[in-house]
Amino acid sequence: MSTKETNVSVKTVSDDDVNRTVIVARAVRQALSFADKGRNGKDWEMATKAIMNNQQLTDTERNTILHLLDNKSIVILLMAAARITASD
Questions:
Q1: Distance between CA atoms of 51 and 65, rounded to whole angstroms?
Q2: Residues 6+ positions from 46 with CB-CB distance below 8 Å
Q3: How many Cα atoms are found within 13 Å in the side-chain-facing hemisphere of 83?
Q4: Which terminal Cβ of the chain has fewer Cβ within 10 Å, N or C?
Q5: 3 state SS for the chain
Q6: CA 83: distance to chain centroid?
Q7: For residue 75, what are the contacts with CB-CB under 8 A and spacing of at least 6?
Q8: Across the chain, what does the average pLDDT equal?
Q9: Domain definitions of the chain by residue range
Q10: From CA 35, how far away is CA 19, in angstroms rounded?
Q11: How does pLDDT run across 2-44, given as a tens digit for each residue?
């Protein structure tokens, strides 16, 4: 396999997966990083697509995250917290 090739595995998950918290946290972090890179730091469409296309999330998790993304004041606080954590 060349260094340019990438193996991608898609995992089907269940609600009782013990690593749900980590999976959800990574999905939220990814969505927030997309949102932060848009025009004026607000690329909500790209963040939403990232959540919708994440096959590791359950429908309930996906809907909850999307609901939180719609509440921009919560997202701004999460983005600020992520920046503080990243700088430590």
A1: 8
A2: 34, 35, 37, 38
A3: 8
A4: C
A5: CCCCCCCCCCCCCCCCCCCHHHHHHHHHHHHHHHHHHCHHHCCHHHHHHHHHCCCCCCHHHHHHHHHHHHCHHHHHHHHHHHHHHHHC
A6: 15
A7: 32, 35, 68, 69
A8: 73
A9: 58-88
A10: 25
A11: 444 444 444 555 555 668 888 888 898 888 888 777 666 567 8
Rounded mean pLDDT, 63-77: 75
Amino acid identity of residue 58, one-letter, is T
- Hunting for tokens 């898609």 — which residue is that? 10
CA distance 74 to 15: 25
31: closest CA among 19, 43, 23, 20?
Answer: 43
Alpha carbon 44 to chain centroid, angstroms: 12
